[in-house]
From TrEMBL:
The keyword Zinc does not apply. Residues 17-77 form the HTH tetR-type domain. This is TetR/AcrR family transcriptional regulator. Keywords: DNA-binding, Transcription, Transcription regulation. PANTHER family: HTH-TYPE TRANSCRIPTIONAL REGULATOR RUTR, TRANSCRIPTIONAL REGULATORY PROTEIN (PROBABLY TETR-FAMILY)-RELATED. Residues 40-59 bind DNA. Coiled coil: none annotated.
Length: 215
């Protein structure tokens, strides 16, 4: 007992699962701040107030921890986008609005996670994590576009290309918005859909370049 009669405080030890989650949270923050190459097990351990062997025990090293962090971010973003596109009976424009807003909402609520995805695996790297994720999203959008193109007697083969264009626009706009945070994500989503949707509405079935035209 303490001198004043109150029981002495006792530090509580984390369970293995709690410690693992703590290290994932700390690692996520360090990777977002410094990038994979500039991050170290030493710093992650120091911020978590543990010894380096604890990090190795749970993840085998920096690479293992990073892989867990990235996998969770990819799963979170894909799940959010899948939910936004789940209702096939909705009008295609409404689906596009939901998907754009879901993407921007993920960025808004998971800034560290998004920075990790785009910093170490930029869209320009074909083999990168973010590029692979966008490919998965584009395939889902392609299914929706193909159905609509077929309904209006457009070449279904073009769905793949248009899906890549739309998803690329959203991805790059999202990276820009992450740094500006203005205007609101609702306004940004509405403008993106406005540009893409009205382009699709007036889509030519066999577009060609205008020879001799000047930029």
């Amino acid at each position: 007992m303490a001198e004043n009669g109150a029981p002495r405080g006792r530090s509580t030890r984390m369970t293995g699962r709690e410690r693992r989650e703590q290290l994932v949270t700390v690692g996520r923050s360090v990777f977002a701040e410094k990038g994979f190459d500039m991050s170290s097990v030493e710093e992650i351990a120091a911020r978590a107030s543990v010894s380096k062997p604890i990090v190795y025990e749970h993840f085998g090293g920096k690479e293992g921890l990073y892989a867990v962090v990235v996998d969770r971010e990819v799963s979170t973003l894909l799940a959010d986008l899948e939910r936004s596109l789940r209702e096939q009976r909705l009008h295609p424009r409404l689906l596009m609005e939901r998907a754009a807003l879901a993407f921007l909402s993920y960025i808004d609520e998971n800034e560290d996670g998004f920075r990790i995805l785009v910093r170490d695996s930029p869209v320009s790297q074909a083999g990168g994590t973010f590029s692979s994720l966008l490919t998965d999203v584009a395939q889902r959008v392609e299914e929706i576009l193909a159905a609509q193109l077929k309904l209006h007697s457009y070449p279904e083969r073009d769905a793949t290309m248009y899906a890549q264009m739309l998803v690329g626009m959203v991805a790059y706009t999202g990276q820009w918005w992450l740094e500006t945070r203005t205007p609101s994500k609702e306004i940004v989503a509405s403008r993106m859909v406005n540009l893409s949707w009205y382009g699709l509405v007036d889509l030519q079935k066999s577009p060609t370049l205008h020879e001799g035209s000047k930029a």
